[in-house]
Each structure stands twice: as structure tokens, then as C-alpha cells.
Specification:
Two copies of one chain form a homodimer.
Chain A lengths: L2 E8 L3 H18 L4 E5 L4 H7 L5 H9 L2 E6 L14 H11 L4 E7 L12 H4 L3 E7 L11 E4 L5 E10 H16 L4 E6 L5 H14 L6 E6 H10 L6 E4 L1 H14 L7 E5 L5 E5 L16 H13 L4 H16 L17 H11 L1
Parallel strand pairs in A: 1-2, 1-3, 3-12, 5-10, 8-9, 8-10
Antiparallel strand pairs in A: 4-5, 4-11, 6-7, 11-12
Bound molecules: 3-isopropylmalic acid (2 copies).
Pathway (chains A, B): Amino-acid biosynthesis; L-leucine biosynthesis; L-leucine from 3-methyl-2-oxobutanoate: step 3/4
EC number (chains A, B): 1.1.1.85
Catalytic activity (chains A, B): (2R,3S)-3-isopropylmalate + NAD(+) = 4-methyl-2-oxopentanoate + CO2 + NADH
């Protein structure tokens, strides 16, 4: 039975990095005889430019029919002036919410070959391996009411709503506990329960769900302290679970600790395990089109996709081994190169991974 | 004319560190003949234990009458089970909001004597000197409606409101631009304007106010990117300005970059420049009562108070010089000591500063 993958290159460096990732996908598809078919569609700013919408109906239809989605990145200054309803980011948020991809898994791993690239001291980050589980379809990103209104005195006021109900918290809690079971069996839930009522409920439901997982240890930390602890001693964490907004901030900080944000894939899963896979980094408009972007996070996103959504563990292993091999060989794109050392281009990195497969 | 200072020791290590800071205040008060009178009052968990309220009416009345307030810290696990309306934090939030202390200035400075204490590599943090200007009386901390309600299906839902109006944004913008004028004339405003409407208004008003400060350069950064950039290259920033919640997270991360969060004071000012001064760190209940806490952040908060609210610049300079001297002498409390080296107690550190004055 054939499997369908929808490829969404998006904006900025998206198309360049996705091109290399698709070459890798094609290679394992034939060598492991996976029967994967893929097609592309528009999303983000490039979709807006072409169709007037950052998430055209045809893209959404294809996304719903796909077994998995591979996304590059969306957004860029070109579209910054647009109304929020048609900005590139709206395409991404629309996919997340329409496909109910509520569980965003963001690993922050230090690649031993790249230890030097971190801005943290080696003893602080050596061996770092954290997983951030971020709720992705609720919270302040989607809360109603929202907008900008004019007050009686003629002044404007902007407002957004941070909201979570029990079911939303319960399902992301389970995702975190399940993930922790495959790892070091520790979940740290991040909240601001000394100030925000919504996170009081969050904390309470985390406690409730933890009873279903007696083998996993649950702890709680305030978000401001979590931001500090990530800098001070990140290895204290195994799985961190948090809401959409805090997760956005903390996962980026955690990824950057490793010095290899150009290396980190992510998965956004729904209740059936179908998912969208994308690099943790953004569309990097400043280097778009120059052929210098690092395609490895996207290539590793293909590996995650094969493992989680396409039941092709061996192919996933092969890709990850190939990436490790090219790093061992010393190949570096500019973002992960030490100062003054030689770098390879986006497509040369793709070539090298293909050769190592 | 005598000046009135209200001292609020609070909870945890609060009383210990404030005790040392008051000794220093008394010393400069007499040597510089400042005519400062001070009295103490209860706030936080200790106030709740005594009176049933984390911010007793008498404390608020004294706070309103004071020229400046010196606060230790509030909160601790002892009060974690309490209803949010009487938690220790409510005392602090009540002071901020009742006194309209909207401008929270949080410097993140690397003390050259303590460079080793940072978890970041020396080349990343050497010479770090950022100022975070955090809006402190609005945003999601105070937004209405808020609470936990039961939905029709019997499930509960938690909700908070993130809200800012033009005046609130305008006044914190001016605080940031004014502060930048005294520094390197660069303001970076942090928002999430690709997702949250309230920060679209924030960004727009920052642009508007920047026209009043043609000598100061304004840039904008998304909050997730800001969290990354603080880890990657914090020295790119001069003044960062942001809302209450983002400021809570980013200022703690920034403070921790320096490795000397036990050294960092903060000021919370109202429109007339009256203010509350407190260390950036929290109540550290785990070490409370042991006499090992670092009093320097609180002592430096006294210096900030003298400079900003009590018109006693010389006394402020003297305190800062004394702190620098004890660091040069090699005195270290446990939090800033290198592994295995000798440490001094809270009161010994206080003694040393007094001797150095
Ligand atoms: C592009 C943006 C809407 C998105 C987010 O805030 O979720 C991005 O920062 C991310 O983390 O995937
Ligand atoms: C104690 C708490 C309410 C407070 C806050 O969140 O503002 C603290 O974290 C701070 O930053 O001063």
C-alpha cells in the first residue's frame, strides 16, 4: 500500500533545504522499497503571493489526505506588513490547527561532533539530550476573543486570550509521559501557576495524569526559573512539557544551547500519530537563495517522519547514521563550522548524505 | 527634609539579605548625612501568616507614604497550596499595581571578577551589560477576565487575558528610550507580532514613540528569537523592552547568563520616579535561614534606590565601589564561588562591605 507524503517547501531557505531532504527521501524510498509517493504544494508567503492565501484550500485538502507532511519554513520580512489573517505564519498555524497536530516534539541534542559550536561551556552541555513537548493547537496562539479594539476614550487596546481546557491539557500530558517512558522517565511541567489561573489548571491536570504513569517522575517548575535553569544546568531535564507560548520560547532557547539549531528536527503529531515534520529553525530570509543553508535539520525531519508516521524505522536509522557519518567526515555548513574552517554548500551537504547512505 | 524608606524583608532568604542591606544603608545614611528614616512592614507569606493577607492595609499605607521601598523576596513552598488571591506573590503584585510601578529595570551585567561563574564561554559574555526594561503593571499579569470556569460539558477551562492599551505601551516605551539615552542608544523591542494582536499594537506604538528619540535606534525582535539570541550572542543588545510576561522570562534568562544572579539589583519605578528596589533573584527557600545567601544584590539595590529615588548619588557610588572592592578581595558567598574555593556567610559579606565603605 502506497504512503502519501505532502511536501511544503514554504519560504526563505525552505525550498533549498527541502530539495535536499526530498533527494534523501527518494533514495531511501527506492533502496528500502517503501512505496512512498510525494507531491508538493504551496504554503506561507509563497502561497499568498500566488493565490492570495497563505493556506490555499487545495493545500489543506492534500494535507488532510497525506500520511505525513514535510515542511521547510514560512515567513519573511517581505510579508511583514500584511494583515495578520493572511501572513505566512497563518498558513503554518492553519495546518497545525486544522490537522489537530497538538503534540509538538522538539529535541534539543548536542551532537558530539559539534560540541564547539555551543556558546555554553563544554561541561554544561556535553551530552545534552532534552525533549521539549509543546502544546501546539491551543493556548494564547488560538484563544478567543482576540484583536485590537478602540476604547471609549478613543485609545486602542490589543488583547489576546490564554486558555486551556482539561482535555487539551490531558492529551498533551499523555504525550509527554509516553515520550518520557521511552527516555529517562522524568517529566518537568512548566507553568506560571503563581500568577496565571490557566496554568493552575495545567499543573493540576498534569498531577492527575501522572497517576496513570507511576513509573514516570513528575516535577513542576515556573517558566522564569525554567529559562534560568536551561542556561545554568540544562542537563537536569529529560522531558519538559508546556503550553504553546512558553514552549515557543523555551524550545528555541533549548535548541540554541546546543549550538546546532541547524541540526534539529521536530515533529507535530495528532491523536492518530499522523504528523508534520519540519526543522526547528526558521526561514532565515537573510541567507535564502544563497545555497549556504544547512539542510540537515530537514533531512533529520525526514528520518523522524519515517519513524513516527511511515512505519519505516530502518530507513530512519539509515538516514541518521548517514548524517552522523558526514559530521564525522568533518563536513560543515556555515552555521555549524568553527571560525575560519572550510564550509560546504546546501547541495554539497545533500550530496554527502546521499553518498553516505 | 527627612526621606522615608519602607523596608519589606518578605520571605525565605529575604530577612537575612535585607538585614545586611539595612546595615549598609544605615552606614551611608550617617556618613553622608542623608537624613533617611526607615521602618519595616510585613509582605508576602510572612504577612499572610500573621494577618491573613499577603499585603496588609497597614503595609500598603506605609508603602504609599514612603519615598522608596526596599524589598527582599516573597514566596515559598509553604504557601503553594493557598488560593491565588492570598498567595505571597499577590503581595508583591499588589504593591506593583497599587503604586503604579510600571517600569521595571533589570540590568544583566557580568562582573569581571566573576566571569568564571557564567555557564557561557568567556568570549560570549565578557563585558556583558544589558538592561531589560519590563512593563510591570499590565499585560497578562493583570488582564481581565481571568479565572477557571466550568464549561457546559462539565469540564473546566482556565483563562487569562493578555492586554495592553496605547498609554501603557507609550509610557514604558519612553522609559526604555530614556534609559537607552544614558547608555548605548539602542532599544530592541521584543514582541510576538506574527501571532499576537496585542503585540502588533505594542510594535506600532514603539515605532511611534521612537520618533521622539531620533538619537536612539529602535529594532524589533520576536520573543522566541530573542530567547535564542540571548544564548547565542547576548552582547548584541543594549536595552531590551518588553511586556510583563516576556520580560519575566527573558530577564531571568539574561540575569543567569552572567552567572551572578545573586549580584543583580532591580528597580521598579512609577511616573514620578518613586520606586521599589529588590534583588533580581527570588526567595530561595531551600537555603533560607542558613546564613549562606548572597546579600550583594540587595545591597546593590540600596545603591540603586539612593541614586534613582533618594537623590544621593555619592552614597550610591560609595556602595558600588565597596562591593567592587570586596569582590576584588576575593570574598565569595557560595552562589558565586568557584568549585571548591572558600566561601563567606551572609553576615560576613555584609561585614566586608561595611568595612570597605
Ligand atoms: C512561525 C511561528 C508562527 C512559529 C510559532 O510561533 O509557533 C515558530 O516560531 C515556531 O516555533 O514554529
Ligand atoms: C514572584 C513573581 C510573582 C514575580 C513575577 O513573576 O513577576 C517574580 O518572578 C519576578 O520576576 O519578580
Amino acid at each position: 500500500m502506497s504512503k502519501k507524503v505532502l511536501v511544503l517547501p514554504g519560504d526563505g531557505i525552505g525550498p533549498e533545504i527541502v530539495e535536499q531532504a526530498v533527494r534523501v527521501l527518494d533514495a531511501v524510498n527506492s533502496s528500502f522499497d517503501l512505496g512512498i509517493e510525494h507531491e508538493s504544494a504551496l504554503v506561507g508567503g509563497s502561497a499568498y503571493d500566488e493565490t492570495g492565501s497563505p493556506l490555499p484550500e487545495t493545500t489543506l485538502t492534500k494535507a488532510k489526505a497525506a500520511d505525513a507532511i514535510l515542511l521547510g519554513a514560512v515567513g519573511g520580512p517581505k510579508w511583514d506588513g500584511l494583515d495578520m489573517s493572511v501572513r505566512p505564519e497563518k498558513g503554518l498555524l492553519g495546518l497545525r490547527s486544522n490537522l489537530e497536530l497538538f503534540a509538538n516534539l522538539r529535541p534539543a541534542i548536542l551532537y558530539p561532533q559539534l560540541a564547539e559550536a555551543s556558546s555554553l561551556k563544554p561541561e554544561i552541555v556535553a551530552g545534552l539530550d532534552i525533549l521539549i513537548v509543546r502544546e501546539l493547537t491551543g493556548g494564547i496562539y488560538f484563544g478567543q476573543p482576540r484583536g485590537i479594539r478602540t476604547l471609549e476614550n478613543g485609545e486602542r487596546e490589543g488583547f489576546n486570550t490564554y486558555v486551556y481546557n482539561e482535555s487539551e491539557i490531558r492529551r498533551i500530558a499523555r504525550s509527554a509521559f509516553e515520550a518520557a517512558r521511552q527516555r529517562n522517565k522524568r517529566v518537568c511541567s512548566i507553568d506560571k501557576s503563581n500568577v496565571l489561573e490557566v496554568t493552575v489548571l495545567w499543573k493540576e491536570i498534569m498531577e492527575e495524569v501522572s497517576k496513570e504513569y507511576p513509573d514516570v517522575e513528575l516535577s513542576h517548575m515556573l517558566v522564569d526559573n525554567a529559562a534560568m535553569q536551561l542556561v545554568r544546568a540544562p542537563k537536569q531535564f529529560d522531558v519538559m512539557v508546556t503550553g504553546n507560548m512558553f514552549g515557543d520560547i523555551l524550545s528555541d532557547a533549548a535548541a540554541m544551547l546546543t549550538g546546532s539549531i541547524g541540526m534539529l528536527p521536530s515533529a507535530s503529531l495528532n491523536a492518530e500519530g499522523r504528523g508534520m515534520y519540519e526543522p526547528c529553525h526558521g526561514s532565515a530570509p537573510d541567507i535564502a537563495g544563497k545555497g549556504v543553508a544547512n539542510p540537515l535539520a530537514t533531512i533529520l525531519s525526514v528520518a523522524m517522519m519515517l519513524r513516527y508516521s511511515l512505519d519505516a524505522k530502518d530507513a530512519a536509522d539509515a538516514i541518521e547514521a548517514a548524517v552522523s557519518k558526514v559530521l564525522d567526515q568533518g563536513l560543515r555548513t556555515a552555521d555549524i563550522a568553527s571560525q575560519g574552517s572550510e564550509t560546504v554548500s546546501t547541495s554539497q551537504m545533500g550530496d554527502a548524505v546521499l553518498a553516505a547512505l
